[in-house]
Write the structure tokens for this entry.
Amino acid sequence: MSAPRGMALINALIVVAALSAVAVALLARGDQARERGAAQGAADQARLHLAAAPPMAIALLADDTEPDAPVHLDQDWATPRRDMEIDRAELDWDIADLQGRFNVNWLTEPEDWGDAPRAALIRLAGARDVAPERAARIADAVTPGANRAGLWDAAAPPDGPILDIAELRDIDGIDDADIDALAPLLAALPPEAQLNPNTMDPALFAAFLGIDADFAAELLEPREAEPFTDAADFYGRVLEPLGEEALEAFPDGLIDAGSDWFELRVAVRLDNARHGRKLVLHRTEPDGDIRVVLSLPEAE
């Protein structure tokens, strides 16, 4: 083979190789684009399924509870939903009664509730391994007074009630771990929102009374067979036998067996991806309808 023909053949092979490399690259980019499109489509579909969950949960709450009627853990809304199938997706949800938690905004109205909520918060924090001085700092940062503004980080403190527990992370000198430890037992509701003894966590009951958590759980056991019908029922069956100090631990008007504030945590799994939201639901007056008042994405 002559040298010119050999060089031509080599050049042709180089061109073919280059064209092959370009073709492979284009195919790879096409595959990546298709994968991105499929992933985006799955994410969009998951979000649609996620949007369908709140109306279903609201319908369940509306069927299961009524305004001015006892709300308790034996009702169907309190049962977690797991692995509900929607098309190719799986849906989970949990509904919690926020009026069974410690409402940090009780501290914004000390003239109404006195010192009992503050003492309860500090005891509750201690049971969760949060140092008493940091618990007191949280209480001071929420309670109106001259020192309130100085307890917050760079941002100004909320004006009035806290709107979301996450705001407490902005208190100077408070670690995220402190709020993480307390968050399952806290709520940020209007100051007038009452505490439901039917859904109250035993740890919170123990914190108000200053007693052992196991003993508090024993005292609340009767509600499982016979939920409290109202505040008087709770006082008569549980607090009065414990004496005057137990009665004084719960300020007048703090207890009510009904609930109007709930938290919905919902998650959708689709194609190995997870999408979640946290929503606050409120039963409004005078119609008694339940509406979404806060909706936040959760880490995926």
